[in-house]
Design goal:
Rossmann fold; 24 helices; elongated
């Protein structure tokens, strides 16, 4: 409250004109007042200053650049209700000056008549008037309060009120007491109060009414003087309805709590300050905190959602969640949520505020939906689509590359036949052939990745295969390997060579992730997998090969690209190992997953479907292996007429030269239609072909598979050999169920072709 001496009077002057401000300051310097003055030119600057500081007197010019008239006065009064306000106006603004007094100013001064005497007198009188007014208001308020209190107590109080004498006899009671005790007040005067009174305590009573319903009454008593004698003022308050309401509210809260805990979505409620009031069980799971741990903490400390644009923690979470700019990210796409227990979830989030009739916020409700599995499924689908697109490109490249390698290897092998073993160029040919075979290996990886390397499935023991791989790959390594397996591990339908390649890749990566040594744990399990657990799999029974290392781990950025072709973090390697592994397992109708974090190692899991067939006995498997042993390194020469079909002239010429070297007569065709016509014409002419070598893939024309099927119908004795560098057909992996008698994969050397022809023509 403003006051006179001796404290310093703090004055705030609103004046845009610097000259007028200096003049006012000069007048004040000549007034016998202990003061300091602050000067602002704009209303906004003054309001800001009033928010930070208290002033006793405000000199307010009603003509400011950013505000004029009474609005300026009202704005100042909102933030400086305890200050004396004197408005400064022009002589022609008398009506405005009078309105200012009505609104709340203590005085007005005309600027053109201002001097130090008028200014000093106005400030002193204004302060005195203000203090007197406040004292009067305080006095009147006190009087009004007492009058109101008495009136409420004795005349208009809905609580039952009784005055008791020293013997607890009733001397006075209000109408409400009569209603509560169900009797006329006059009849109860003089009666003894029927209930026990405990001095200084508030007690609860249960009072039956005339309908035998129990009412709950709150009793309190205070000492007083009544008609010159000591007495008790007893107040009885019927709290039956509030107690019933409290009980109902309690039950409602219990029902609400039970309802919230059954809701699939996570629900978090906050108060008007943004502190957590409650969260349901699903929310507790996501944030990694209990209700007790989160209660009263700021929402940002409990719900650690990252900004969809920056990826950093959000400071004002409620405001950001309600920002339309990020609506899609929060409600559809999803954002990462870091749990207090170290896990990361992907969630959608939506916040609604609870507003009163005046629009004031009393709290907010945030609803979260865990879309982690959905996000994972989307990522898997995207990865599959991306890999499929790349695989088509890889397959095309492999096809062309294999054709070129066939020409290279074929010519090398033919030259080697013509040269003596000790020829000066033999070593150069060896080097060239080695390089070509390395390129062949790379091409095979591309084919596997592109699904061109269709698996030859047989019932296989995963345990035996994994154990063999571990012994081979980790021989000489400083890494220890532990193999753990479920009893009676289910068999799987697998291409042993391809699955071994996958396991080898995973073991090599795990070994390289632990340069200082450690332990690789190989765990083999029978699992019944649900689609919800592994979105990329159908629900069913699988054998899981788990490869766990204690290495350096994989960063989140690299983890997203781990299965991309040609992506590698190593100084050496082509980046096809994991991409090919993914393609192999996918072609086996399984999947590969990975969990990793920097500094905590990695876990790769390979899921293969359980076989519906029993595992082949080891003796039978051994016989089959012996039967399929490769031919000896011998070139077989022969005689006969061979038809070669290939759409690439260079390939036809190489194949023709190889066959000619082997002793055969050769004719050519560039597509299936030509091959069918040439074969029929030769047979009809009595000069049939002994065998046909078909390329399976002919862009824009009939391929070898269709042509061989047509010729097989024409001539059941057809001897056809499939030769391809890339195909999505199963012919190359399972030719016995086709019209072909043998296959010669591209690229091939003279030996592979001689072996195939020798085997089919000597039967």
């Amino acid at each position: 409250m403003p006051s006179n001496e001796p404290h310093t009077i703090r004055i705030l002057l609103f004046e845009y004109c610097a000259a007028d401000a200096d003049l006012v300051a000069e007048y004040l310097d000549h007034i016998d007042l202990n003061f300091n003055i602050s000067i602002v030119k704009r209303l906004a600057d003054g309001i800001h200053l009033l928010d930070q500081n208290r002033f006793d007197v405000i000199l307010l010019d009603l003509s400011l650049p950013d505000s004029r008239g009474i609005d300026s006065l009202r704005s100042v009064m909102k933030v400086a209700s305890e200050a004396v306000i004197i408005v400064l106006t022009g002589a022609d603004e008398e009506e405005l000056s009078l309105e200012a007094l009505q609104v709340g100013a203590q005085d007005y001064l005309y600027k053109d008549r201002l001097n130090e005497e008028i200014l000093g007198r106005s400030i002193r009188y204004a302060i005195e008037r203000f203090n007197l007014k406040r004292q009067l208001e305080t006095h009147n308020t006190e009087i009004q309060y007492r009058e109101t209190l008495l009136r409420r107590i004795f005349d208009a109080n809905t609580d039952a009120m009784l005055i008791l004498g020293s013997d607890y006899d009733i001397k006075f009671l209000n109408p409400a007491a009569g209603e509560l005790m169900e009797a006329e007040p006059e009849r109860l005067v003089g009666e003894v109060f029927p209930f026990e009174i405990k001095g200084g305590e508030v007690t609860e009573l249960e009072i039956p009414d005339l309908q035998n319903k129990t009412r709950i009454v709150e009793l309190s008593a205070v000492d007083l003087i009544w008609e010159g004698e000591s007495a008790l003022l007893v107040i009885l308050r019927d709290i039956t309805l509030p107690r019933s309401a409290e009980l109902a509210l309690k039950h409602e809260k219990e029902r609400l709590s039970a309802t919230l805990d059954t809701i699939v979505d996570a629900v978090i409620t906050t108060d008007q300050s943004g502190a957590v009031e409650r969260l349901n069980e699903e929310a507790a799971r996501l944030v990694g905190m209990t209700q007790k741990e989160s209660l009263g903490r700021p929402l940002e400390e409990v719900l650690k959602i990252k900004h969809p644009r920056t990826g950093k923690p959000i400071k004002d979470l409620t405001r950001t969640l309600m920002d339309p700019e990020f609506a899609d990210a929060f409600t559809e796409v999803g954002v990462p949520l870091d749990s207090a227990k170290g896990r990361t979830f992907y969630v959608t989030a939506e916040t609604r505020c609870i507003l009163d009739d005046g629009g004031e916020r009393h709290g907010c409700v945030t609803v979260l939906r865990d879309i982690t599995l959905h996000k994972k499924a989307e990522d898997e689908l995207f990865k599959a689509e991306k890999l499929n697109s790349i695989s088509l490109l890889a397959g095309g490249i492999a096809h062309d590359f294999n054709n070129m390698l066939t020409s290279i290897l074929g010519n090398i092998s033919m030259v080697r036949i013509e040269l003596d073993e000790g020829h000066e160029h033999s070593t150069k040919l060896d080097a060239a052939e080695k390089a070509a075979l390395q390129a062949k290996s790379l091409t095979q990886q591309l084919l596997t990745f592109s699904k061109g390397g269709t698996p030859i499935l047989e019932v296989t023991s995963v345990y035996d295969m994994v154990e063999e791989c571990a012994q081979f790959v980790l021989r000489g390594s400083n890494v220890k390997c532990e193999v753990k397996s479920d009893d009676k591990l289910w068999p799987v339908d697998a291409d042993k060579g391809q699955i071994s390649q996958v396991v080898n890749n995973l073991l090599i990566n795990a070994d390289q992730a632990m340069p200082r040594g450690g332990t690789i744990t190989l765990r083999l399990r029978n699992l019944r997998v649900r689609h919800a657990e592994v979105p990329s799999l159908d629900s069913g029974e699988y054998v899981c090969i788990e490869v766990r290392d204690e290495g350096t781990g994989i960063s989140p950025e690299n983890l997203k690209r781990i299965f991309d072709p040609y992506f590698t973090t190593k100084d050496s390697g082509n980046g096809l190992g994991l991409a090919s592994s993914y393609a192999i397992i996918n072609s086996h109708k399984g999947t590969i997953t990975v969990d990793s974090s920097v500094g905590h190692g990695s876990i790769f899991r390979v899921y293969l479907p359980k076989s519906t067939r029993p595992l082949q006995a080891k003796a039978e498997a051994h016989k089959a292996t012996e039967k399929n042993k490769p031919s000896k390194e011998t070139i077989h020469h022969g005689k006969g007429r061979i038809l070669v079909m290939d759409d690439m002239e260079a390939m036809m010429m190489v194949a023709g030269e190889i066959l000619t070297v082997l002793g055969y007569e050769v004719e050519y065709s560039t597509n299936g239609e030509e091959a069918v016509a040439a074969y029929k014409a030769a047979k009809d002419a009595g000069n049939p072909f002994d065998a046909v070598v078909f390329d399976l893939t002919v862009p824009g024309g009939m391929g070898g598979e269709e042509a061989s099927n047509l010729l097989k119908e024409y001539d059941p004795g057809l001897i056809a050999i499939a030769s391809s560098g890339y195909t999505t057909s199963n012919v190359m992996s399972d030719y016995k169920n086709s019209a072909f008698a043998a296959v010669v994969p591209k690229p091939y050397r003279i030996k592979e072709m001689s072996d195939a022809l020798h085997n089919v023509l000597s039967r």
